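=== Structure Prediction Worksheet ===
Name of assembly: unnamed complex
Input type: mixed (protein and possibly other molecules)
Chain count: four
Listed entries:
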Amino acid sequence: MKSTHTPTMKDVAARAGVSLGTVSKVINHIPVGEKNREKVNLAIKELGYKVNTYARGLKTQETKMIALIVPDTTNPFYARFTQYVEKKLYEKGYKLILCCANGIPEKEIGYLNLASQNKADGIIALTYTDVSSFIPAQIPIVSFDRYFENHPVPLVASDNFQGGFQGTKKLWELGCRRPVFIRFRSKFSSETDKRLEGYVAACKELNLPSDCLDLTDPPDIDASLKAYLEDHKDSRGKLTLDGIFANTDHQAYHAMKILNQMGYRIPEDVQILGFDGIRKYGIDDSALYVSSMCQPVEDLAYLCVEILLKKKEGGVVPSLSLLPVTYEYGGTTRQSNTPMQAYGASNEQQCKHLGI
Amino acid sequence: MKSTHTPTMKDVAARAGVSLGTVSKVINHIPVGEKNREKVNLAIKELGYKVNTYARGLKTQETKMIALIVPDTTNPFYARFTQYVEKKLYEKGYKLILCCANGIPEKEIGYLNLASQNKADGIIALTYTDVSSFIPAQIPIVSFDRYFENHPVPLVASDNFQGGFQGTKKLWELGCRRPVFIRFRSKFSSETDKRLEGYVAACKELNLPSDCLDLTDPPDIDASLKAYLEDHKDSRGKLTLDGIFANTDHQAYHAMKILNQMGYRIPEDVQILGFDGIRKYGIDDSALYVSSMCQPVEDLAYLCVEILLKKKEGGVVPSLSLLPVTYEYGGTTRQSNTPMQAYGASNEQQCKHLGI
DNA sequence: TTTTAAATATGAAACGTTTCATTTATTTGT
DNA sequence: ACAAATAAATGAAACGTTTCATATTTAAAA
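=== Predicted Assembly ===
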């Protein structure tokens, strides 16, 4: 009695009265005599046959799965990135294996190996820790924002340098003359470090001082900000700075909070510009509400997928792809009636930044 | 020349000078002579051998993957749920296949079938559309919040009835005497509908009117709220209601916004209580800031995983598991110095709600 | 018709594991 | 030192596909 037995291709073949090969062809949409195709399809339906992915994978060596490594889905930016990656993969017939690394290096490394174990066809890595030396060779992998030393991994990112540069120019255009850049100093070199470089480059071009504050780790982020602001008051209590360019929207939000607490008006006393554009993509009105240099999350996600799949097919892909960021007004900068200008860094600076 | 050939168990066996079976045992941590184990491990290292998941899966019929279907990872609640599911699965040696259904029924159905195709060992479904009739039989599946008609799918959810009940009592304790419940009327029956039932039950017990406003779809959510409030003013412009119990934190936030716009004070004029507890789990201070009946997201996620895996092992699992929600002060209700009481619905009401 | 060419269908082999009935080596008891 | 008992290692078979060389059918040409 084989009642409790998942039907296999052999069962289908028997029922339809054809050979195994014919069934296989029908399943894989390879042309086959019309009569047979119908017989096979009928048998499949009657038996409720489902292809066994393992048996197939064993032959084809394809899983149709892509692993995505992110630090934390709870972060709106990553959540959105994940969502778009999944969407694109789905359209292309792939499934997403999600890894929330949460800063656990072994976890990141484990998922990096998924492809070598035939559990995934490729990896999109937005790693947090330094896993350069664990990048498996010979497998399709794309990195978002992180630069892996000594490993030729295609990198996709926003044009952080341009973002930093243009944001600074925009602040200047809106009247800011004493900006300060605030950020965490990241432990590992990341594409996002270029934001500061862009800021510095623009300040130089504008003959502005390029102050920068390195925030300390949470939970003291507010404290270090406050201390910095107290240090930058004149005798009348007026701030000697008039603009804050924050490395992320989140940091911008903190700055906003502190300034409010200290009684300064935004944007009248101090303008604030963030980076990421979380608000634009926020699911509800409660999300961050700051002016921001906005990353094209959707396009970034799509590009990662496209490059990864192309690489998987053996195609030649760019080792670096930078997508432009855009200025989005969010209430913490002065209103301006002139549209955003497409500021560009000078050729010289651009070259220096690209290292060419 | 076999230089460009992924090493297989056979290669390892040859190199170590042992049989295939021995290699298999070493890999699966089945006791084996010490000398041989060392030889095999050495060979594995030297060759860089990785087990081929497909070949293994073909034999074992296990994928060590679980699919999670959520409507949208961009929603902080789902994002957090996803994160915890992934964490628990990882601990148990499973990987997560993520489906952001985004309201696309075919997508949900496709992922529901993943298990029958041997791509996943089980499914955790937080579906948006009505997919009752597509639930595959015989495969491990757990539902979060959604009730599938005619299908004995284990359901995990917050105790929404108790939450509605206790929240109402809490509002009353804080002085509210004219509450109104606001919500979207959901298209498909969901466990969350019980929040309203709990509210109604509590109102009855407290001899309060149990007003309820069904919000219209976005983007008119604000409009319908505003209209309702305008309708509930007395001649002097004072509101005839003094408390809003919102079905979700998000709706509570909208209520907060409108009330602010209309010049009412919170919580002095109107108290607001939300449901979900997003703020408590928010990654930054910009998240919703309302008093809320807080769902134990972490425990809910863990429970889903545990029940799923138990079911997969053939264990007997509860068909319904409800976890308690807790009141969290968030600024939109009056301060109270009495700790939250563990209010319970009366026995009679409890029975009615459970249908027993 | 018969021959030839084109189109289809066939089924054995292979993919890389796990499993299990056997065989071989080791230990124990006398 | 020998038999019996126990432990360890072996390798063929099986998992359910895909593939490809071969066989069969069908259609076209002579």
